[in-house]
Amino acid sequence: MESLLELIRGRRSIRKFTPQEVPIQKIEELLEAARWAPSGGNAQPWQFVIVTERETIEALEMVSPGLFGEPSAIIAMCFNKDRIQSTSELHYVDLGAALQNLLLMAYAEGLGCCPIASFDSEAVAELLSLPGQIQPVLLVILGYPDEDPSPPPRLPLTKLIVERT
Amino acid sequence: MKLPEAEKSGDEYLFEIGAFLISSAKGCLWEPKLYGPLRLLTVFSKIALLPDYVPCLKRDEFLLNLREEIEEKIIPLVVSDPEKFEQLIKDLGMNLAKEIKKRKIK
Q1: Do A20 and A72 form a contact (C-beta atoms < 8 A)?
Q2: Half-sphere exposure of A55 toward its Cβ, with a 13 Å CA cutoff?
Q3: Which pTM does this prediction carry?
Q4: In what order do the strands lie in the sheet with A134-143?
Q5: Which residues of B, range 41-100, sit inside 8 Å of A by Cβ?
Q6: Does ipTM top 0.90?
């Protein structure tokens, strides 16, 4: 088992996948990790929609310009507005924490993922027949990786930390 | 980018391109500036494959080579190296001008 920091450093966004299907149990393991993310006031504002049907994936691709590759599955990470109590935007932070748990779990399990924000949220809600309180925020494309991209550059810590002593 | 699939008709492919364009137009209202050129290049990539779906069209080797360059070398740079992404798009324009000259100007 790699150390947590090695996992964090090793994870990449994957946009090319093999045709191998991802078993639903594996996908549920990712969502199990996601649901243990922290959230303000323990609101747990997320809702997950698992899409594995080929026709539905192709329909989602039509309204998702940021979606490349041919994923075996897509997880729509949504807000359940019934569980959002705050008027601030902090629930986006909550969803981000759930996303990172999911991405790291996927990497640890040998899967590849990429979160996509470039899609028409209203169109996706229509295609998935989601009720009004469920708002798609991110699409996570998922499959077995068929690429091993290099890491994009990261800013050094010296540029990111302000020390006050 | 999908490769041609025998079961997809020209009509279906046209619809797919239309849907991509409309969704892209909506996204361009709020997405980062470079995503505009990215979407246009992606649509170019799709259009270059039209002859695979519409039998009355001929494959254009120049467009297909351009498509390969765009898919393999340019699109992946939009996040990792935006400056090079911009430069390669400018280079594409010059390559295109040379091809237009060859085809149109005697």
Answers
A1: yes
A2: 4
A3: 0.85
A4: A46-51, A73-80, A134-143, A112-116
A5: 42, 76, 79-80
A6: no
